[in-house]
Write a structure and sequence with these properties.
alpha/beta, 7 helices, binds zinc ion, five-stranded mixed beta sheet, single chain, Collagenase (Catalytic Domain), 48% helix
């Protein structure tokens, strides 16, 4: 009995020391997390609550590979003199000449040379009839996917994860980048500074 209790106490002490070590390590890691500033140009009047939900969803995708996103809008960008790392333009396919000529990526497309991605909200809204998910959550996934294209070499797609060519509309599971993609994204972000 005595021996067992001693062993238990020693075990607990080691466990405490170990978890304290983890806490210290993770708080250091949080401070060092790379941050990208993403400006969202909401040209189609997505409601603030819906946009916030979509941004949170996209943030979760990037948080899983240790990247933080600071979201700003056009006004903040100008008033606070913040130069965004990337810009996401929310617009509709029917007014986008460029989108009409591209059938490969019907929900959005990316222009890495100008660090800008376009998300076609009318096409995402049209998925409403076929998905059990909400449109803002799908919008978040498309934003994360197109941001992925701005941070990965072409073609940037993978069989699994957020960079799958087709949008996952059935499951709420938060898909993120594959391990090789995560390494690429992180090294690209570190090179941005
Ligand atoms: Zn894609």
């Amino acid at each position: 009995m005595v021996i067992r209790r001693t062993a238990g106490a020693a075990g607990a002490a080691i466990l405490l020391a170990f978890s304290a070590g983890i806490q210290a390590a993770s708080s250091t890691a949080t401070a060092d997390l790379p941050v990208i500033v993403v400006r969202v140009d909401n040209l189609v009047g997505v409601l603030p609550g819906d946009l916030q939900f979509a941004e949170q969803r996209a943030s979760e995708v990037f948080a899983q590979i240790g990247v933080q996103i600071r979201w700003i809008d056009v006004e903040e960008s100008f008033s606070q003199h913040v130069l965004p790392s990337f810009t996401v333009v929310l617009e509709n396919a029917e007014v986008t000449r460029e989108a009409r000529s591209r059938s490969v990526e019907p929900l959005g497309f990316a222009r890495p040379s100008v660090r800008r991605a376009y998300v076609l909200c009318d096409r995402i809204a049209a998925l409403k009839v076929t998905t059990p998910r909400t449109i803002p959550s799908l919008l978040g996934d498309v934003i994360a996917h197109e941001l992925g294209h701005l941070l990965l070499p072409l073609p940037g797609h993978s069989a699994d994860g957020i960079m799958r060519p087709g949008l996952e509309t059935k499951s709420w599971y938060v898909n993120t980048f594959t391990k090789p993609q995560a390494r690429e994204v992180l090294s690209r972000i570190r090179a941005l500074d």
